[in-house]
Amino acid sequence: MENVKAYIESGILELYVLGDISAEEKLQVEDMAQKYPEIRAEITEIEKSMEFYAEEHAIEPPADLRQRVLGSLLVNLGDDNTFTKAVTHQDDDHIKRLPGTRVNNFYKYAFAACLTLLLISVYGLVNIYSKLQDSNTQLTAMQTDKIRIANQVNLMDSQLDMYRDTTYKVLRLKGLPKTPSAAMILAWNSVSKKVMVDVQSVKLPKNDKQHQYQLWALVNGKPVDMGVFDAPEADTAGIKEMKAIASAQGFAVTLEPTGGSINPTMDQMVVIGQF
Amino acid sequence: MTPKRKISLSEEELVLALRNREKIAVEALYNMYSASLFGVISRIITDEAIAEDVLQETFVKIWHSFSGYSSEKGRLFTWMVNIARNLAIDKVRSKDFKNQSKNHELENNVTFIDEQKNTVYKPELLGIRDLVSTLKPEQRSILDLVYFKGYTHVEAADELGVPLGTIKTRLRMGILQLRKHFNE
User: Fold this and answer.
1) Are residues B82 and B151 in the same domain?
2) Do the domain assignments include residue B110?
3) Tally of domains within chain B
């Protein structure tokens, strides 16, 4: 068989006997050896040669080593009869590997310590972060509050200014027999011609969607449109600026269709006041 | 014959006795192979005390892992010499051993050992030493590198600065020449 001869001559069998061969190649050689007796015989010949070669290079170990080796094997033999083989084997392995294990343990513990520290740090960070978030939220809320209060103070201030300013004439509009509880206060600046309604002072029944209150100025006996407004919600503070007017003897409010009317509906008059 | 060789068995008998874990097998194993194995180990490890330890480890390992040996896959000695060589190489490459830095230059090692120690000459092998010296030096150096030093043929090619193909050819030719003489 040509390929068997070529296989033998390739030198792979020598490498196989010398143990210088990969695991795959080893399986392949063993496979071939089983199929072809020539290859099996060749391997045996090579093995015998190397065995003789080793014998030719043999060195007699010291006599006392013989006792040591036989002693350790016979102790093992005794152990084998007493214990299971696996136990003996593990014990041996354990003793040999101890120094290495110690080093490994150090790194293991160091790693565990690092991991623990890391976890604690992360936990701490998360805590602090959530506290910071809380503080930020509170701070924002307080700022909003502060602005709101400042606005309120400003508003109050301007409201007060209206009463302090001597150029403003303050007029209290009173209810008519039909609407005795109605009332409101407005101020008219004779210099800037502005007309301001003190919203908090407006005491009028609520108007519906189809109707609005309309303010009228009485100029020389004639009503002049000063703009519309709604009855304010309870406890609403502020000043509502109406249309400006150069002169007026008095003011009145009527209930009109939404958007206001050109002429006042006299029987819908709710309050009136005169200087 | 030295008195130490009084117990000796055929390879088949020895394998059977080892498999049955008989006491006689331990002594026969040592008698038959300790010198050959120690020769291999000593060429890898020059420190005698360490070489002796490795020989002891080798026998312990042979004893423990004997169930892993199968006569179908090869001769007993081939299996044992691989164990001895691997243990010795592991030892040489271990950190402890390197720290001692007692190892000698490789090329001188084999001849160094032969000069230092009394190699055993068996009567039946007389004349073979002449043969070995008639092996071509390049065949012998490769054989020694791979067989005694545990070099792979790739490493040997590197060490000797010779192409891989040449290494393989020289290995085969060297072994063929050995066979010719052993079979005469």
Assistant:
1) no
2) no
3) 2
Q: Does A41 contact B at CB distance below 8 Å? A: no
Task: Give the type of residue at B121.
Answer: Y
- Shared-domain flag, residues B84 and B13: yes
The domains of chain A are located at 2-59, 168-274
The nearest CA of chain B is from the CA of A95 a distance in Å of 14
Name residue, tokens 């079979």. B183
Structural domain contains residue B20: yes
Q: Are residues B64 and B125 in the same domain?
A: no
Does residue B120 or residue A149 have the better pLDDT?
Answer: A149
Residue A2, min C-alpha distance to chain B (Å):
19
Question: Within a domain: residue B53?
Answer: yes
Closest CA to B142 of B121, B125, B118, B158: B158
CB contact under 8 A, B147 and A53: yes
Chain B nearest C-alpha distance from A112 (Å): 27
- Which A positions 87-126 lie with beta carbon below 8 A of chain B? 88-89, 92
Q: Is 70 exceeded by the pLDDT of residue B184?
A: no
The string of pLDDT tens digits covering residues A153-194 is 888 887 788 778 888 888 898 888 888 888 999 889 888 888
pLDDT at B105: 46
Is residue B107 included in any domain, yes or no?
Answer: no
Instruction: Among B2, B5, B63, pick the best mutation site for testing chain A contact (most A Cβ within 10 A).
Output: B63
Query: A49 vs B143: CB contact, 8 Å cut-off?
Result: no
DSSP-derived letter for residue A232 is P
Give pLDDT, residue B55: 93
Residue whose C-alpha is closest to residue A27's, from A41, A12, A37, A38: A12
Residue B104 has pLDDT above 60, yes or no: no
Domain that holds residue B134: 121-184
Alpha-carbon distance values, B35 to A27, A55, B4, B10, B25 (Å): 31, 7, 11, 17, 16
Higher pLDDT, A220 or A129: A129
Strand order in the sheet with A222-229: A222-229, A211-219, A250-257, A269-274, A168-175, A183-189, A195-203, A239-242
Residue pair B103/B95 in contact (Cβ under 8 Å)? The answer is no
By C-alpha distance, the chain A residue nearest B156 is A20
Yes or no, beta carbons of A58 and B120 under 8 Å apart: yes
Asked if A43's CB is within 8 angstroms of B147's CB, the reply is: no
Complex ipTM: 0.77
pTM: 0.51
B4 class by beta-carbon count within 10 Å (0-12 exposed, 13-18 middle, 19+ buried)? middle
